Amino acid sequence: MKFLAVFLAFCLSFAFGAGQGKLELLRLSEYKDQNVSGWLASEKLDGVRAYWDGEILLSRQGKKLNAPQSFTKNFPKFALDGELYAKGLKFEEIQASVMDKLPDEKAWNRLKFHVFDVPEASGGLLDRLEVLAKFLKNEPNDNLIIIKQIKMRDNAQFLKFTESIIAKGGEGAVVREPNAPYERKRSKNALKFKKFKDAECEVISINKGSGKYANLAGSLTCKALGGKDDKEKASEPKESTIFKIGSGLSDEQRTNPPKIGSIITYKFQNLTSYGKPRFPIFLRVRED
Q1: Among 185, 280, 273, which Cα is nearest to 223's?
Q2: pLDDT of 259 over the 80 cut
Q3: Does residue 63 carry a catalytic annotation?
Q4: To which CATH superfamily is domain 15-194 assigned?
């Protein structure tokens, strides 16, 4: 029995990372007109993904986030999956606060942990979220917010719902099959719909600009990541595809461009006939 207990503890430590390795979390597939009648929709927040394991906050890569104790005080002892987000703050501002090795309590106080699932609870999505709702009824916590889920009558309502979010400056929407369990993989039961697709790439060289960008970075030459042997990523460039990104860089970023070898996130409309992203736009450097 003692050996079994130790073995189980080791397995749990391996599965959940303990801050050491990448977490296996729910990943969204793309909405491509699948029938979502009766599914639950919510706004897709442009925040930093975080996982509360019952003791500490972790990034999607399994790294410990140095949240001040005041932020996570009285969080539940069960796991939560969600986004660290603050309406009105740019992603870069949120990321800077979250990834700071020396947590700024004032900066963290602007954020809330917006929860979209309770991974280890049983039942459908609403049942799982109800576990947190009951906890908060007894232990109110201003730093925990349950993301509102709205039942969709049909696909037309979902498209209208998404369009209303984008019109207000939002990123897009998520729609989920209400009875599906929490899946630690890319799920066909959880879909995202955004105006632009986004993906990640590695910076392999920095190209000098011309004209008003003389002596500054004009563009970044990048190598695509992912998209290999993954049908859900068929709309992304294949792994190792080489392309340039010149749009989306601020003057500051052109002066101090992302380092060679860094991983960046970019958005694009679709793929060209050559398999390269059409109109790629720089979004951010991945820090997690």
Answers
A1: 280
A2: yes
A3: no
A4: DNA ligase/mRNA capping enzyme (3.30.470.30)
**Percent above pLDDT 70 for the chain:** 90
| pLDDT tens-digit readout, 180-210 | 999 999 999 999 998 788 899 999 999 999 9
CA angle 177, 195, 32 (to 5 degrees): 40
Question: pLDDT (tens digit, 9 = 90+) per residue, 57-91?
Answer: 999 999 999 999 999 999 999 999 999 999 989 88
Distances 283 to 46, 156, 246, 263 between C-alpha atoms, Å: 11, 30, 11, 11
Contacts of 232 (CB under 8 A, 6+ apart): 29, 30, 186
pLDDT by residue (tens digit) across 96-137?
999 988 888 999 999 999 999 999 999 999 999 999 999 999
Q: Measured between alpha carbons, how far is 114 from 111 in angstroms, rounded to an integer?
A: 9
- List CB contacts of 147: < 8 A, sequence separation 6 or more: 42, 43, 45, 82, 114, 115, 116
- Taking domain 197-285, whether its CATH number is 2.40.50.140 is answered by yes
Q: pTM value? A: 0.74
Cβ–Cβ under 8 Å, residues 231 and 250: no
So what's the pLDDT on residue 230? 56
Catalytic residue among 2, 44, 137, 148: 44
Which DSSP string corresponds to 9-64?
HHHHHHHHGGGSS-----EEEEPSS---TT-EEEEE--SEEEEE-SS-EEETTSPB
Task: State which H helix or E strand residue 252 sits in.
Answer: helix 251-255
The per-residue pLDDT for 196 is 84
Do the Cβ atoms of 41 and 150 come closer than 8 Å? yes
Give me the residue spans of the domains in the chain.
Answer: 15-194, 197-285
- Three-state SS at 125: helix
